[in-house]
Design goal:
This protein has 4 helices and 21 strands. It is α+β, with helices and mostly antiparallel strands. It folds into 4 domains: 86 residues, Beta Barrel (conserved putative lor/sdh protein from methanococcus maripaludis s2 fold); 93 residues, Efflux pump adaptor protein, beta barrel domain (Elongation Factor Tu (Ef-tu), domain 3, Beta Barrel); 66 residues, OB fold (Dihydrolipoamide Acetyltransferase, E2P), CATH 2.40.50; 61 residues, Helix hairpin bin (Helix Hairpins), CATH 1.10.287.470. The strands form 3 sheets. It has a 6-stranded antiparallel barrel with strand order 2-11-14-13-12-15. Strands 3-10-8-5 form a 4-stranded antiparallel sheet, with no helix packed on it. Strands 7-6-4-9 form a 4-stranded antiparallel sheet, with no helix packed on it. Helix 2 packs antiparallel against helix 3. The longest helix has 30 residues. InterPro entries: Beta-barrel_RND_2 (IPR058792), MdtA-like_C (IPR058627), RND_pump_MFP (IPR006143).
């Protein structure tokens, strides 16, 4: 009995001294390259879409009403200074001139007769003054009718291009009604664009601008701001800004151009992330893993993205300057996963 007790005690002591089974090593966090998101203040710019036009575009019409007898130019025609472009039927204005001339001769004869009677004492001085006033009025009528007769035609004010033909031969027009629109080539081409009050207030005369036109194969041309409207358009509330364009034979009135003008002040801060950090792009949105350096964990975040450039993919919103993003293994990470960051400033 005593022997069995001794054997049992030995077995118990041996069991207590036996080492516990070893467990495998804990899985290590994956190493992930990270980068810090930085912001840069760009050059302040103002953008807009405008229309090409000759700086001086003149509407031409007749100084008197009448029927158009001749209209010798079409849209797109090139004209020279003094060239007769249109003419009225002069029957009416010629009749007006004949009537005014006859009235002047009658008034002149009446004044001469009254002057003789005044010298003989047969009439009073007020009567003579009335005859003189009638003569002066008749002479004025002759000058006005002569002016109308001389201006029954439209002449080109200078070399240019016919931009619009607003009437046709045989049409009766009122005095001052626009018949033709002429663009003066000597004035040069401009890009005229409407801007909001906020944008126009940031511009100064002489500010450089970069313009692209589809009609010129989107070639970049450089211009400068030469005029800004003093008040807003009553209909749209925008301010017209004119940009002088360089001489180019391909320019035509009515072409559409996109302008980026250098403004005063500092531009908005732009953010960009490396392309390798972005995944799942769709409809202007994408995903990134933002790294929390305090806990070494990644968190999935949705961001709005813009165009790609040499600095990376532009971020419109969803991330702040100074935050860190994962660059590698983004297809193997999960939200809240612990990582071993590589590249952080610790």
């Amino acid at each position: 009995m005593r022997g069995r007790i001794v054997v049992s005690l030995c077995i118990l002591l041996a069991a207590c001294g036996k080492a516990a089974p070893e467990q495998g090593p804990a899985p290590s966090a994956p190493q992930v390259r990270i980068a810090q998101v930085g912001g840069a203040a760009g050059v302040a710019t103002v953008s807009g879409v405008g229309t090409v036009a000759l700086r001086r575009e003149t509407s031409l019409g007749f100084t008197s009403a009448g029927r158009i007898e001749r209209l010798g130019v079409n849209e797109g025609d090139t004209v020279r200074r003094g060239q007769i472009l249109a003419a009225l039927d002069t029957t009416t204005v010629a009749s007006d001139l004949t009537r005014a001339t006859a009235e002047r001769e009658r008034a002149r004869a009446e004044y001469a007769r009254s002057d003789g009677l005044m010298k003989q004492g047969w009439i009073t001085r007020p009567r003579l003054e009335s005859a003189r006033a009638a003569l002066l009025a008749a002479e004025a009528q002759v000058r006005a009718a002569g002016f109308q007769r001389a201006n029954a035609t439209i002449a080109a004010p200078g070399p240019g291009t016919v931009l619009a033909r607003l009437a046709e031969p045989g049409q009766v027009v009122a005095a001052g009604t626009p018949v033709l629109v002429i663009g003066e080539e000597a004035s040069g081409y401009i890009l005229r664009l409407p801007l909001s009050d906020r944008d126009s207030a940031r511009l100064t005369l002489g500010a450089p601008a970069r313009i692209t036109l589809a009609a010129l194969n989107d070639d970049v041309i450089v211009g400068r701001v030469i005029e800004m409207a003093g008040r807003a358009d009553k209909a749209t509330g925008t301010f017209a800004v004119e940009i002088a364009l360089p001489d180019d034979k391909r320019l035509r009135s009515g072409q559409i151009g996109n302008a980026t003008i250098t403004a005063s002040g500092v531009g908005a801060t732009t953010l960009a992330v490396p392309p390798s950090a972005v995944f799942g792009p769709r409809a202007g949105e994408a995903l990134v893993y933002v790294v929390d350096l305090a806990t070494s964990r990644v968190h999935l975040r949705k961001i709005r993205i813009g165009e790609a450039n040499d600095e990376g993919i532009r971020v419109m919103s969803g991330i702040k300057p100074g935050e860190w993003v994962a660059l590698s293994r983004v297809d193997r990470l999960t939200d809240g996963m612990k990582i071993a960051p590589l590249g952080s400033a610790q």
